[in-house]
Amino acid sequence: MAVPLFLLLCLAAFQTTASADLLSEYAHHAVLDPAEKMKLFWTVDWDAETVSFAVEAETTGWVGFGFSTGSGQMVGSDVVIGWVKDNKGYLKDRFADQKALPPMDKQQDYELTGFQESGGKTVLKFKRKFDTCDSRDIKLEQGVTKVVFAYHTEDPVSETDIKHHVFRGARSILLLNSMDKRDINETGWSTFPLTTKNVTVPTKETTYWCTLLKGPQLKSKVHITKFEPIIQKGNEGFVHHFLLYECHGNFVDKDFDQGVDCYNIANMPYAKCQAASIVAAWAVGGEVFYYPTHAGFPLGSSDSPRNFLLEMHYDNPENLAGRVDSSGVRIYYTDQLRQYDSGVISMGVKTDEWHIIPPKQKSWMSVGYCTEKCTKSIMKSTSLPEGGVNVFAALLHTHLAGVALWTKHVRNGKELPEIARDNNYDFNFQDIQILRKEINIQPGDELIHYCKYDSMDRNKLIKGGISSRDEMCLDFIFYYPRIPNIRYCQSQAFGPSYKLIDKYFPDVNVTSVKHNPLTNMNIDWTDEMVADFRKYKDDVKNVFPICGITNLTTIADSKNPDLTVPIPKITDPLPPEKSKCAQANRASWTNCRERASLTCRFCTVVWHVMRCDWCSLVKRYGTTDSLYHMYPHVMCFDFNANY
Ligand SMILES: *[C@@H]1O[C@H](CO)[C@@H](O)[C@H](O)[C@H]1NC(C)=O
Ligand SMILES: *[C@@H]1O[C@H](CO)[C@@H](O)[C@H](O)[C@H]1NC(C)=O
Ligand SMILES: *[C@@H]1O[C@H](CO)[C@@H](O)[C@H](O)[C@H]1NC(C)=O
Ligand SMILES: *[C@@H]1O[C@H](CO)[C@@H](O)[C@H](O)[C@H]1NC(C)=O
């Protein structure tokens, strides 16, 4: 047995070396599949707008890798297939137009930059532009990117004779918003774990387990610099994601460590923590998180949390019994205090029963506002020389029905670059987006958070709430300098529900501001009712600001216009992103009438040889409808039709 063992060790050592080299060569990496058969390494060059990749696969045959829109299907994905044979590397840009060998693109946009085959592994290195201007390539954007991958154990005979894969998969990654951690010095950092304590994973498909945990005993203030997941060996398939919340308040010993099913948390003394600010978040495939070197999350200061609520999501689709888990998160901190304390504010729609989404809707938008009045009051005196706060990361969050979400930034009516966007939201992959450049928010700025939902698979209305079948519409922004005791800047609108009740259910009484009676009625949603509700929602002109503290305690409050503020108006929208590609390539002309609901941002009106700005036309002529009547031949050039 000695010889095989020796060989095995050699092989193992060799393999580790290959990965270790790639780890230092590239800024980011991700293991693509649970068995770690394929790994991805990459580096983003923002100036050249290119990404360099290395794909490592446990095969000496061909390797496939690419980008998919949406669900991770092979059909419709932009892929490369390559291999190493007789010391030569092969790689071709292809497009999977059907369930067959993806044909090669006429325009080859992936450049093979290196290759290696050794120790039973193949490494292919290649490079491409964010936007190749080829309609058969997928544009690489900020937010979640779905990657697809595959391999075979044999090299192909030729570029047109490639055997069907023996291994394939898909997963989400943050390609352009990952942390570059090559220059971080961790000397002198301390750590403590926050984990569940031998939880028996319930024999049901989905469990959210909520555990109250004590933070470390600290003599003085420290800064959290990093956190990373601790996943108990063997339980990788069960541990799906976790959120760590701050917990303020007083608790007794028996509240700690045991935990409860989060569905039953309402009566626990720590129930409120679930609505508090998030300290750390991780989901399947997520990575380690580092704070920027000039900021850290403070512990041991007067308004820092001393306790934490760990919300662990377990996935047990096979209903396996008796699985015990102690997974969680490891927090790293330093007493070498950094320049700024950081904090997290959640923006968007207040999570309560007045945030509702009718069933069977392909596309439904919810919008929450962090209003001028609120930012004026909470951000007025900070220690930044330029004033306000700087945002360095964002965690976009909805539950199962969410498909896309983004946050706009407005100053005196002028729209500034977006804070964050995710056009391919994946509930099963919620990682923190690192902003490419920090964004300064000034007192008086306004933030508008949009969430797009698909409720086609629901028969009942979806209400705002903490269960994953309920919905949320939030953006947790990570910022500095910390504003003590402020955890949210959100809004709520009661009008749409009240109007719907008035028209369709006049006998129903609202009895508490905490309870929307629509949420537990058996409603037969007619098209008319949905259309009315959509209109009531789109007509909202004033909202209740939820600015750290809420004054809404009575039904009279929820009907009191004096407690509302006007929603932000964008008078000067962001011009459409200029495409670097020849326009003909992206031509997507649509009749304006069909596009009437588009916001200004995505359209430029073109007719004859004149090029006009859609928004200024709308401003001049009123609605898009009247504009259409005036110029029936006006066509929209659709840059990025998302809303
Ligand atoms: C990291 O920091 C420590 C002490 O702060 C220093 O001694 C060490 O040389 C640093 N390491 C690197 C690689 O810069
Ligand atoms: C889980 O139980 C085992 C066996 O009783 C024990 O050794 C271990 O410390 C427990 N783990 C935690 C995190 O409590
Ligand atoms: C609603 O309120 C009215 C007036 O207070 C009352 O007469 C009626 O019985 C209430 N209806 C229900 C269903 O509670
Ligand atoms: C809301 O409550 C705060 C604190 O209790 C109070 O200062 C403020 O005046 C209230 N606002 C309104 C509009 O009632």
UniProtKB/TrEMBL annotation:
One of its GO terms (biological process) is dopamine catabolic process. It holds the Pfam family Cu2_monooxygen. It comes from Desmophyllum pertusum. It is found in: Membrane. Its EC number is 1.14.17.1. This is DBH-like monooxygenase protein 1. Keywords: Copper, Disulfide bond, Glycoprotein, Membrane, Metal-binding, Monooxygenase, Oxidoreductase, Signal. The keyword Zinc-finger does not apply.
